[in-house]
Write a structure and sequence with these properties.
The chain is mainly α. Helix content is 59%, strand content 0%. The longest helix has 33 residues.
Length: 95
Amino acid sequence: MIVRIRFGGGKRVGVKPRKQRRLAAGLAGLLTPAAVLAAAVAAWGIAADLNLTGRFAISTGLFSHWEVWLGAAVALQLCAQLLNRYAKRGETAAS
């Protein structure tokens, strides 16, 4: 015997798209300075490897490599651009 339970449609609960777009724009605004900071740490790591500066602050572990910081900077900036694109989707030039 198979018993099927059917639920009614009910009221949909959700957040307004405008509020999500404002949140996306705000988060994108915070990700860009974080990307610049990560790029600066990557530049410091490169300079430390070339003996142009003193020792790099993080001497062991995953974050002791400048490649990781450069990759993080690229990823953060990419996320910021995607969030900005989402936040501005559907807007007209007049708004």
